[in-house]
Design brief:
The protein is an all-alpha fold and 199 residues long. The protein has 11 helices and no strands.
Amino acid sequence: MKHLKLILIFIVSFNLSTYSQTDKLLSESQTIKTSYDNLLKNLDNKEFQKRYIVDFPDNIEIFKKVFQSPTFDQLYMDSHLYIFKLAELSKNFSDLVGDKLIRLCIGLKKWDADAIGHIQHVTMGYANSNYSDFIGLIKKLNNQDLNTLVTFLADVENHSAYGDYQGFMNKLKTNMETELFDSFKKAKELRISQKDHGF
């Protein structure tokens, strides 16, 4: 019983300290939070939409500080909301959003849970939904960056549940983008042959 009380006290203390830290935001966190809050009040305003895209951090060090903090503070708890909102704005600013997502994927390089995983999935969703724009953007990449991007996007444990990846590959095949199709196919096959994350 005593041990149970200690565990409960620890959990409550951890939660209180975590949520209290949202009042101690870094300037980078505050910038994107302000843009996000302004956008929510003006969802159809293209100036606020563009400002949010511009303010969304694509510097990897800053991105991790803001959304993937090891102490679970800053904007960690709501990172999915911020990332999904960025992806939604591709309706009006496809190239801007796509370019930012691609640069994030290349910079992050390796899969991780939470915010990094969200970036991976929304980027693949963007690629499948905005096929032509995504193709145009990745064809500008050098071979090293393209390989890093494809490897990052392929790094999931269950490809059978990764519909956007297969959907994008199908479009590559239909549009006879043979070289890109082969790259995505090889990355998928290699990932399937490897162990799951954490092993």
